[in-house]
Write a structure and sequence with these properties.
The complex is a heterodimer of chains A (113) and B (123). Chain A has 113 residues and is mainly β. Helices cover 0% and strands 50% of the residues of chain A. Chain A starts with a strand and ends with a strand. Chain A is globular, with a radius of gyration of 13 Å. Chain A contains no helices and 12 strands. With 123 residues, chain B is an all-beta fold. Chain B has no helices and 11 strands. In chain B, the strands form 2 sheets. In chain B, strands 2, 4, 5, 6, 9, 10 and 11 form a 7-stranded mixed beta sheet that branches. Chain B has a 4-stranded antiparallel beta sheet with strand order 1-3-8-7, with no helix packed on it. The radius of gyration of chain B is 14 Å and the shape is globular. The N and C termini of chain B lie far apart (39 Å). The chains are: A mainly beta (113), B mainly beta (123). At the A-B interface, strand 7 of A face strand 9 and strand 10 of B.
Chain lengths: 113, 123
């Protein structure tokens, strides 16, 4: 199985500042024939299901604020939340969808400092 | 607006079968653009992808669960279902149904989720 490891497990960021979350895969999730990274980011607020924020490592879903951005390729990926807002408090999960089983990272909790 | 709603027993005895149904409104399970599937999250733990199904009834299962699970489709009711056989306490989790964006014949990213249903395995 592909093992997805997120860091840190939690972080506290001041309002308006930047939050950066790392996701590393044990194997590359870049599929060479189509040059796509099969990597997604989800946001999960307390008591709610996960919400898809970013697919293909860097493509924001419709309606997702542009302060959320995804980057990276192969085995190393980053979710950046610039200008952190109070409503961004949540757990963020990365998921690889290249190899079955489609595995998730352990989650990163983002709080306000 | 697309809505998914899980339903089923919230308490299941060990060794018995867990059965859940997802009712979809706002989209048709025969829509060939998407797949439909299940994920779960044990209390205090991370997410696990269980499996998915296409309108053609082709199924895709997590290999670690494949011997115990069945995902099926009822297009007349616009519902799909999950069965997990021989459950143990390790199957206690919040179960989500979700629509999946497809790519290259496989379900990939989950773009719409139900609210989830907590199923406890206990005698």
């Amino acid at each position: 199985d592909f093992v997805m490891t997120q860091s840190p497990d939690s972080l506290a960021v001041s309002l308006g500042e930047r939050a950066t979350i790392s996701c590393k895969s044990s194997q590359s999730v870049l599929y060479s024939p189509n040059n796509k990274n099969y990597l997604a980011w989800y946001q999960q607020k307390p008591g709610q299901p996960p919400k898809l924020l970013i697919s293909w490592a860097s493509i924001r879903e419709s309606g997702v604020p542009d302060r959320f951005s995804g980057s990276g390729s192969g085995t190393d990926f980053t979710l950046t939340i610039s200008d952190l807002q109070a409503e961004d408090v949540a757990v963020y999960h990365c998921q690889q969808c290249l190899n079955n089983p489609f595995t998730f990272g352990q989650g990163t909790k983002v709080e306000i400092k | 607006q697309l809505l998914l709603q899980e339903s089923g027993p919230r308490l299941v005895k060990p060794s018995e079968t867990l059965s859940l149904t997802c009712t979809v409104s706002g989209d048709s399970l025969t829509n060939s653009d998407f797949f439909w599937g299940w994920l779960r999250q044990p209390p205090g733990k991370g997410l696990e992808w269980i499996g998915g199904i296409y309108y053609s009834r082709t199924t895709f299962y997590n290999p670690s669960l494949k011997s115990r699970i069945t995902i099926s489709l009822d297009t007349s009711k616009n519902q799909f279902s999950l069965k997990v056989n021989s459950v143990t306490a390790a199957d206690t989790a919040l179960y989500y149904c979700a629509r999946h964006i497809g790519d290259s014949g496989w379900p990939r990213f989950s773009d719409y989720w139900g609210q989830g249903i907590l199923v406890t395995v206990s005698s």
